[in-house]
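User: Predict structure, ligand zinc ion.
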Amino acid sequence: MSPSTTKQEETTVDIDIPDNYVAYTLKNEKPRPPFSWKNWRNEISWISATLLVSTPIIGVVGAFYTKLTWQTALFSIFYYYVTGLGITAGYHRLWSHRSYNASVPLQFALALAGSGACEGSIKWWSRKHRAHHRYTDTELDPYSANKGFYYSHIGWMLVKSRRRTGVADISDLSKNPIVRWQHKHYMKLLLTMGFVVPTVIPWLLWGDARGGYVYAAVLRLVFVHHSTFCVNSLAHWLGETPFDDKHSPRDHVITALVTIGEGYHNFHHQFPMDYRNAIKWYQYDPTKWFIWTCKQIGLASQLKKFPDNEVKKGVLTMQLKKLRETQDNLAWPSDNNDLPVVSWDTFQQQCQKRPLILVSGFIHDVSDFLDEHPGGRHLLVKMIGRDATTAFFGGVYDHSNAAHNLLAMKRVGVLHGGHPHGLDEKLIPPSQRLKIARYNELGSPYASSSWSDGEGMLG
Ligand SMILES: [Zn+2]
Ligand SMILES: [Zn+2]
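Assistant: Predicted complex:
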């Protein structure tokens, strides 16, 4: 073993975990006791709960007594995007997922901006987020959507977690000087970027310190908080699953609008190393546009994209799944395996009792269709007991696909030796020429050649 490997192993926390880590941990690690009136003082996460409860109150009350100037309003929106991008482009896509490389100045700017969102240090946040991806929807997911909308949105930060977050490696972040610096000075940075800077800028530039504090610092913070929290709640609850439906993440434009582009969360959980969340040009993903712009001006590089071929496979799988449901909900004709195989004589005998017509080797009972036939009853009556294959396929009238599909529904038997060779087009109704089959269902329904004569087709 080389010295570098040993060093690597010393710093990765997940190298020695058992193969059945999730089940093992759930079995052997006791959860904290349930939150109750007896233990609530101990069980509340006081620092985050105080911040999360007090800021909306201060913000709303403050707004009642503080005039909003247009400069402060514009600055608040601007600062919302600055600190929001610190989380989405920085904490999330850069540090949690390494979806691109950022130059030192960009890393520094993102670390500062992210501090202004007051959501913990990069190290703490990314540790939780990596566990969220690794253990999505399980007990080891720090903000599992299975515990409900409220819990995944904010509840997990108000009360201590009942279980320790699942293990996730952040050794790369522990070695990053900017991440270490931000972690070390986090409280100072939080106060400076979260409250001092957004108060001082409006004060110095247009003399509105109070408005700056209420709108650009406190209320802006409330919006950034709930906007990013929606990635854990709304994005696991609202929308479609176009890439995979194994877990809870979903895609929705509304989530994208409130989260600076993090709303295509179904895609994101499937392809977390991709710097994009939205892959279509018209979808709202300002975080992606920001990272792309940084690349154009030389601040970012190595923007990662998952191979398009694999992305399309996910999409196709989900489309086929939906189509399969539609297919399963329709009634289909009986195939060879279910139908009795009868001789020409039996066919003729049966014709004395009911109107049977032979087409492409299948015997059809047309009794409920005699009066419905668009070409008239007489054409069907003429064909009773006869082979109407040629007449059906263009000899008299080249029937539509719908007619062929309907005809197949009237099958009651197979004429022994009656299937014309090399005429699959006439044998298989149009609606069955292309169908969704699971990997273990690929045998042909027309493969059977069993021979059974009898009264079975009287059924
Ligand atoms: Zn998620
Ligand atoms: Zn993520």
